[in-house]
Specification:
single chain; 210 residues; alpha+beta; 6-stranded mixed sheet; 11 strands; 28% strand
C-alpha cells in the first residue's frame, strides 16, 4: 500500500485518544493508522494483498468452526493495544465471536496478522525501525495474543511467532510446501494455501468440457 498523511497530520502530532476521536469522524471506507504520533491514511491494498488476507481469514474461520467456535477471524481489525503513539490496524485478527452490533473496536485478540506492503518498510518517524517491525513488537506485547503472522506478498514467505509455555517461538516458513500449524486456532495448512489465487500461486484455468 502507498501512504499519505492528512493536513492535520502535517500540522500536529496526536495522542492515542485524540487519534481515536479523529478516526471516529472519518468515513468508514478510510483506513488510518497512528505511526509515531502521526495520523496516516493508507490507500487501497493491492489485489494480491487482499487475496492473501481473505485466504487467511477463510482458513482460520474454517478451522475455528471445528476447533473453537467461541472465536472468529476478521479483516481490518480495530483493536486498542495501549501502545501510546502507535495505533496499527492489523490485516487479520482472531477475536471473540460474541460482539455487539455496531461495535468497532475490541480489547483482546488471539492472533494478529500483517500482509507486508511497501508502507510497512518505511522508517517510523523519530526511530530507526521499520513500521512492520514496530507493529510486530506491539502484537507480541499484547497479553492475549498467542500467534503473530507476518506474511510477504511479493514472495512465498512468512514469519510465524507462536506463544509457548516457554515464551515466544519464531519460525520463518519459505516456499509453498512449508507447513503452518497454529494449535490454538486448530489451523494446519500449507503456506501455498495462503497465496491461492495470487500471481505467486495462480489458480489453474478450468478447461471447458463438451
Amino acid at each position: 500500500m502507498n501512504v499519505r498523511t492528512s493536513d492535520v497530520a502535517r500540522s500536529e502530532r496526536m495522542s492515542g485518544p485524540a487519534f481515536r476521536s479523529f478516526q471516529a469522524r472519518r468515513p468508514d471506507h478510510e483506513q488510518w493508522e497512528l505511526i509515531g504520533g502521526v495520523p496516516t491514511m493508507m490507500t487501497p491494498p493491492t489485489i494480491a494483498h487482499s487475496r492473501i488476507a481473505g485466504n487467511l481469514e477463510r482458513l482460520l474461520n474454517d478451522a475455528l468452526a471445528r476447533h473453537d467456535p467461541s472465536r472468529l477471524a476478521t479483516q481490518r481489525l480495530g483493536i486498542d493495544l495501549g501502545s501510546g503513539d502507535y495505533k496499527p490496524e492489523p490485516d487479520v485478527g482472531v477475536i471473540d465471536a460474541d460482539y455487539e452490533a455496531g461495535q468497532r473496536f475490541v480489547e483482546r485478540a488471539y492472533l494478529l496478522a500483517e500482509i507486508v506492503s511497501s508502507t510497512d518498510n518505511l522508517q517510523v518517524p523519530g526511530t530507526a525501525e521499520r513500521w512492520i517491525d514496530v507493529k510486530r513488537q506491539i502484537y507480541l506485547d499484547h497479553e492475549f495474543c498467542d500467534a503473530v503472522l507476518i506474511i510477504e506478498q511479493e514472495r512465498v514467505e512468512m514469519r510465524a511467532d507462536v506463544r509457548t509455555e516457554n515464551g515466544w517461538g519464531s519460525h520463518t516458513l519459505v516456499g509453498p510446501q512449508a507447513e503452518l500449524e497454529l494449535r490454538a486456532s486448530g489451523l494446519r495448512c500449507s503456506v501455498a494455501d495462503l497465496y491461492e489465487g495470487t500471481p505467486l500461486q495462480p489458480r489453474r484455468a478450468r478447461q471447458n468440457r463438451l
